[in-house]
Amino acid sequence: MTEPLSFELSRPAVDPPRLPEAEVGGPAPSDVLGRDVLRARPPGLPRLSEPEIMRHYSRLASLNYSISENFYPLGSCTMKYNPVVNETAAALPGFAGLHPYQDEDSVQGALELMWRLEQALCAIVGVERVTLQPAAGAHGEWTALRMIAAFHDSREENRTEVLVPDSAHGTNPASAALSGFQVVEVRSGEDGRISLADLESKLSPRTAALMLTNPNTLGLFEREILDIAEMVHATGAMLYYDGANLNAFMGICRPGDMGFDAVHMNLHKTFTTPHGGGGPGAGPVGVKAELVPFLPSPTVERTNGHLMFDFKRPQSIGRVRSFYGNFGMLVRAYTYILAMGGDGLSQASQDAVLSANYLRKLVEGDLDMPHEGPCMHEFVASAQNLHEGGVRALDIAKALLDREFYAPTVYFPLVVPEAIMVEPTETESKATLDAFAGAIKDIVAQAKADPQSLHGEPTKLPVGRLDEVTAARRINAYLQGLSEDPVLRWKAPIEAAETVAEKTLQESPC
Amino acid sequence: MLETIGVRSMNDLLVDIPQSLRLDSLQLPNGLSEFETMAEVAALAGRNRVYPDRLTFRGGGVYRRFIPAAVSAVTSKPEFYTAYTPYQAEASQGTLQAIFEFQTLIAELTALDVSNASLYDGATAVAEAAMMAFVHTGRNEVLVSGYVHPEYVQVLRAFGEGRGIKVRKGTEPNKKTAAVIFQQPDFLGLLVDAKQLTQSAHDVGALAIACVDPISLAILAPPGEYAADIAVGEGQQLGLSPSFGGPHVGFIACRRELVRKLPGRLVGTAHDAQGRRGFVLALAAREQHIRREKATSNICTNHSLCALAAAVYLTYMGPYGLRQIADVSFRRAHSLAERLRRLPGWEPAFPERQFLNEFPVRVPKAPAVVRKLARKGILGGLDVSRWFRELKGVLTFTCTEVNDPRALDELMAVLES
Q1: Which residue of A has its CA nearest to B77?
Q2: What is the value of pTM for the model shown?
Q3: CATH number for the domain harbouring residue A228
Q4: Alpha helices of A299-429 — where are they, by DSSP H?
Q5: In 10 A of CB B190, how many CB atoms?
Q6: Domain limits at A163?
Q7: Tens digits of per-residue pLDDT, B47-87?
Q8: What ipTM, to 2 d.p.?
């Protein structure tokens, strides 16, 4: 089943919704503004009635897989259940109705929430202060690197390189490059952990920072983290923590104690704010004392119980987002932390590690396990064992979709061929994990018996495998001016466009 | 489960963590029931003062608008709000198609060729557009012309510093200028000569970046019509609540020639073996997970759910509903401006300039006026001298369709008393 676009469903006969009239004597735009300033034709928005709109989006919703429906084993993404109470909290008029430029006295509750959330995050990751401004994880990474750059500048040190492991998330090198650094890759060793020898050879007086996630993207804890921190600090560089994997050890250990100087957190992973089909998220950054002067402006400060924004921060890297960040997501994360408490968060991480090791055990006979366990909150398997029959990680992923599971992350991290990265999270029951392992077993059996049949999957979804290669070719043709089909948007068929244009010209109130 | 794994205790799974790092517990209170949690959160919400929509005359980038019930009815569907970024296209057609519709809606509004899947906010959208111009022209200066939102300029500066891009305020672009950035209407609500600014950019080989109010595009000539290269803006007005400044949604659209330099996600059409049309993430070779340090941007998460809200809003309004909203706001704002200028000592700050539904007024004892209004439950104009010293005593007032005629009377009654 597919659904037409709203543009294709549009009917010129649909009246606009009933909306307020001006009821005052002010002039109309065309009375005051010159013709050259005015829009000549109304924009080509679709015209649908409310029932048509609601049906359209309800049908679209039914084409989506979501965590509310079933298991989402997407490695590195921490797809845990999103408690519905978070949504209720964020929708309270006392939060949703606040204008960002109200007087501080009238928003003390909002500032108190931001202050308390900052305190809680400091306690969880072991840092001095946290900025809540960044809108997403990658935004947080970049913010942290800007602070690290400002720190080195303040000491008049010219450090131009950022070290990034070959297993790192793609956002790490991209954020480093956008912060003006050269990216130097550090290799992983045989055991999947960062090679200390390679790290040593890459560290130099030019090194500004090492970006690391721990456990790393293979789900393995960097056992030698204290030595790594010492090596990095000995060269005068800083250690940066990519918080994508924070769900592995809340209440078990803290990045700050490991020696990390800056830590970003994904509230949309660890702290259950919903992913929204790709945002909005929130990516707060925690820092140790040395980096505090460089935090984005404003920070929230508290004196004698009164809360205020501090805009006067002479060494600040400036502002990284308008207003104060994705406040609605901060409300959700605070609600989650409050409900879970210190005990609940610690239990959540332990359960996440337990789930991952359990599932790893269940599927280790079916897929290759390139690295020895135990793992932390996720593990990376490989479909290399099915290579001979022509079955790839992508085939496993698509076959899972047909068995009512979402697919794990595939082809990441890049250091494992045919990688299948699974993160079950603490919110899945043993029964769900068993069922998922059963599905993997079925698929692997099918891969061995009839590998060809897997290439045709999925067959039970609204569409089959989509031909991205042809799509890319069509986009290229458009971008090179060889075709008028933009592919990246809907365009009215030529004849229809003319009719619509004529009609709207007549109807236009301009 | 431990038995299946083959270990005796949870600690056996945590052996890789050095003992010296292990914690006993977190320094946080224990968890609460849902009832207690909500009581505590609601108490915090209760300590904030919420001004009614109709008595809010403050804008400055975040506006009170009528939000159709259909918007939250759609965005609160768990199939949308609990889905991940649509990596597996076949299982994510709902999100992908909604984003494709959003891209088309923004392209139609701005009259440009292609829009991306959304950005964090208006400020980062301006910064990302400046990065595109920097890469496209190979020049390292951007010119900010006129009263562009001060926070957008601050974010632009912070972004620019990492890439060695200089941000200059002024009106004269030169051969070093990568882009001329202007806001239409500007931060004060005033109209700028977008056509002339675009021409001045093109005269020196720079790009023209128009930061636009999406609802204004129901009235004003869109960026594509005056040949701007990139249009960006803040989409909060398209169905999103103020929420103390976020989450909202940034948008960015450009000419065909610049599409490869767009940041973030892009959705396009593709077909399956049976010829059925579907939607996929397209041109991924620009992005961080493929290109790593050579990516056009580090953006990974966009603001998908907010883009969905904007798509529902624009579809609900349609071309004539949007026009009606813009018209009503325009008329009421002009009516209010006329009444305000008759107050003793009050005068338009820029009498020669046109505006839509936000305008600057020079006011005697502005801070006292704002306080007096607050005492009467009215969120009055925004004191813009906080950012612009030369605008001492200037308040910007905003009117939209939610400020009914009686609300205008109430505002005037307090000011006249």
Answers
A1: A61
A2: 0.97
A3: 3.40.640.10
A4: 327-363, 393-402
A5: 22
A6: 102-340
A7: 999 999 999 999 999 999 999 999 999 999 999 999 999 99
A8: 0.97
